[in-house]
Amino acid sequence: MIIKNTRLEIILIIVIILLFIPFIAMQFTAEVSWRIADFVVMGVLLLSTGLLSELAIRKVSKIKHRIVLYIVILVVFLIVWAELAVGVFSTTISS
User: Structure pTM?
Assistant: First the structure.
């Protein structure tokens, strides 16, 4: 018996659509230049965020706790994204 998980399918479709945005932008402008590694890292980041949200839906029953968990997941996603994009929190060591 195969159990169909439509939320997982929706998460995967959304990740693919979001990754197509920079891919399409790369076709029209030189200002967007992602490498394969960039797509992989962002795909992992988006997928892990979606799967953590799905886990929160399945395991947390109280709405208030679920909302707090969603906020934490979103903040961690944004912090990691900002750090990977422009290095907001890292310090450069000059020789």
Answer: 0.81
